[in-house]
Amino acid sequence: MVEGFSPRPEFPPAQGVNITQGNAVNSGLDWGFKQLTRLCSLGVVVILTWIAWVVFADAQPAIAKFGWEFILSQQWDSGEQLFGGLPYIFGSVVSSLIALMFALPLGLAVAVMTSENLLPAPVRVPIAFLVELIASIPSVIIGLWGIFVFIPVLMPLQVALFDYLGWLPIFGTEPFGPSMLAAGLVLAVMIIPTIASISRDILLSVSPSLRSASMALGSTRWETICLVILPSASSGIVGATILALGRALGETMAVTMVIGNSNIISASLLAPGYTIPSVLANQFAEAVDELHIGALMYLALILFVITLGINSLAVLMVATIRRQGEGQ
Predict the structure, then answer these.
(1) How far is the C-alpha of 241 from the C-alpha of 194, rounded, in Å?
(2) What is the pLDDT of residues 248-270, one digit of tens each?
(3) Which of 126, 180, 210, 239 is deepest in the core (most CB within 10 A)?
(4) Mean pLDDT of the chain
(5) Residue 99 and residue 249: Cα distance in Å, rounded?
(6) 3-state SS string over the chain?
(7) How far is CA 109 from CA 115, 240, 271, 288, in A?
(8) Which of 240, 272, 263, 245 is nearest to 158 (CA)?
(9) With bands split at pLDDT 50, 70 and 90, how would you rate the model's confidence at 214?
(10) Percentage with pLDDT > 70 across the chain
(11) Calpha distance 192→133 (Å, rounded)
(12) What is the pLDDT of residues 74-87, one digit of tens each?
């Protein structure tokens, strides 16, 4: 026996307490909790399948008439019963990629600045709170801000791009305000909180021992951030980015108010465009013909498949990056 320590006193079992009865109750609660979580998970799958089936069934008239040509056609004339979804698919993808191009570096910078002690805490915490607060603003409010504040501010830049770089196809349209570029930048403002807040939580969860080990080997702070912290959190950052892209693809009101709503495909970012959520919001209330409703539901089905594919790709990418990280 170690000197200075006394043996732990033996406690006699309490009289009248059935230990096996308590274990049976806990086992029953565990079983019930497992069944409840399985039921909830199955419910999510059922609801998702139900939504997909309803959209697919309503899109059947357009699928039967146009088939795969609907995706490649640019015609949209409800009077002539001619429908094609290419301008809307093009607008959704391009505006979302523009948003992601601007939002990813800004959101990642905000995440690094608010997770590392590069700024004093009285400054760092309010910045993180204000950035996350943007996510709670209704999209129609951001759309109004885009029309009355952002587009007038952006207009001189669009004019300068046309005047000096108009020989490039991407700036070859004389701007008049609403445009694909304006929609992409407004979308960027909307998805920055998603990237910043999730990436910040991921960076904060990185083990402090990695920072200490990197600094002990002589790395500077920025070398530690760029070569150790960010690679360690890469799987979470990729997931946050794909989640933000999914939100950008499905955003409706703000984009409808600033994109110009033109179904003419143009290579110029200064030209107006159209997205799938925008055409659904604008035309669904006035669609009365079965084929017109079917064409809109066909677009909704395409958006559903694109979003589902992107989220599935994100899961695969996160799993691959995580396996590679564990293998190193």
Answers:
(1) 8
(2) 888 888 898 999 888 889 899 99
(3) 180
(4) 86
(5) 10
(6) CCCCCCCCCCCCCCCCCCHHHHHHHHHHHHHHHHHHHHHHHHHHHHHHHHHHHHHHHHCHHHHHHHCCHHHHCCCEECCCCEECCHHHHHHHHHHHHHHHHHHHHHHHHHHHHHHCCCCCHHHHHHHHHHHHHHCCCCHHHHHHHHHHHHHHHHHHHHHHHHHHHCCCHHHCCCCCCCCHHHHHHHHHHHHHHHHHHHHHHHHHCCCHHHHHHHHHCCCCHHHHHHHHHHHHCHHHHHHHHHHHHHHHHHCCHHHHHHCECCCCCCCCCCCCECCHHHHHHHHHHHCCCHHHHHHHHHHHHHHHHHHHHHHHHHHHHHHHHHHHHHHC
(7) 10, 14, 30, 48
(8) 272
(9) confident
(10) 92
(11) 11
(12) 888 888 888 999 99
Residues in the chain: 328
The torsion region of residue 264 among left (phi > 0), alpha (psi -120 to 50) and beta comes to beta
Supply the pLDDT for residue 18: 59
